[in-house]
Amino acid sequence: MATRTASRSTGKSRSKGSPSFECTECGWQTVKWVGRCPECQAWGSVEEKGQVTARTTAASQLAQPARVIHEVDASEAEFRPTSIGELDRVLGGGLVPGAVILMAGEPGVGKSTLLLQVASAVARAHPDSPVLYLTGEESAAQVKKRAERIDAISDGLYLAAESDLGQALGQVEKLSPQLTIMDSVQTFSSAEVDGAPGGVTQIREVTASMIESAKRRNMTMILVGHVTKDGSIAGPRMLEHLVDVVCQFEGDRHSRLRLLRAVKNRYGPTDDVGCFDLNEDGLTSLADPSGLFVSAMTERVPGTCITITLEGRRPLTAEVQALVAESQAAQPRRAVSGLDSPRVSMLLAVLQRRAKLTALMKSEAYVATVGGVKITEPAADLSIALAVASAALEKPLPNRFVAFGEVGLAGEVRPVPGLRQRLEEAQRLGFTHAIVPRKSTEKDAAPEGMRVREVGSLAEALNLVLDGGQSG
């Protein structure tokens, strides 16, 4: 018995409370195995870790000693415009040397087209330094055909169809480009690392190697990333932490409008949005996209209302249209396009109970936006409710009229942010009347020459615009 006890004590032991399992996605640790990481919600990413000991020692010679902060040349990190205004707007001014940018978006949204235009524009603006476009999904001939179609041919733009990381790094070493675009990071793999292309291990190796090359050469790097079914970026969450800028390219495949947002930006703001028009000639920057979301009808029609939404810091004009028709079905149909369906259902219920529009209970309701724009912010509640009420009562709203405000379940109209900015945009586009929430925190919000009425409830707003309280 003593011998057996002694043999047990000489074996490997581990503290009962010490973490022995770790998530390969986010680094979360636990004392027992679980199928799903509670930190990053990844499945099958928790693995047992061995005894880790420090293996890296201090370098005997420093490649670049630390400097006093005011001796560092800040001009090395200045923005370089790309000649594509909407992209520069989102990035904060342009591309930064040494920055690594991750561009993500759904298939077919236009990521490759935009980046090919960026590569050509940068090559033309700086002919003394080449631009490298690494494609792992298409052949060089396919990329050239697209470049010819969108007029993105430049003498300083180099193409390489590669999927091996070692070959890609060799192309960078040979050309020493000012900008490298990798399309896409999930298609490249390293022979030095196990795993299939697109796996967690391969994506880590590819991203880390390209980031190291970009920082060492002071070269701008743009990585194209795939997205999952729910719209999040595919691969480990660490990918977004490693890069400097994360951009999300959005758009409906049935619409020409494309929106570019910066989810993360170490060099600029993240509350701005870039607008592009996708056509046969590529992507065109839209400095004023409001005309895409408003119908061209000139006569007053029941069931239409204009609102001003804020995409980041940018005001956009959008039109909400509603159609209410009698129904013989036990459960009348509700159809929504471009809006949040549960929120529209809530507004229909508020109109029934608070505004006494009981006819909606036995009517079909169809609510949509013009131009394929998607509206998610609560500030559009008032315009949706007014459009539905106008359609139900067969009374058109006044001309040159806008409305915005959040509607609560009690029928109250709540204040919304950016009131002054919305009203200035409405005045610029020729609107002369507006209904806004009462008790706004912004003083003197009404621009000169624009009639603004404040309301505290939905019923008060309906009385103003549908019962002769406001003229057109």
Automatic annotation (TrEMBL):
List of residues binding ATP: 105-112
Sequence ranges of Low complexity compositional bias: 1-18
Cellular component GO terms, alphabetical: cytosol
Domain of life: Bacteria
GO biological-process terms attached to the record: recombinational repair
Residue ranges, annotated region (Disordered): 1-21
Domain RecA family profile: 76-227
Domain writeup: The middle region has homology to RecA with ATPase motifs including the RadA KNRFG motif, while the C-terminus is homologous to Lon protease.
Family, per entry: Belongs to the RecA family. RadA subfamily.
Function noted in UniProt: Plays a role in repairing double-strand DNA breaks, probably involving stabilizing or processing branched DNA or blocked replication forks.
Record HAMAP family: RadA_bact
Protein name in UniProt: DNA repair protein RadA
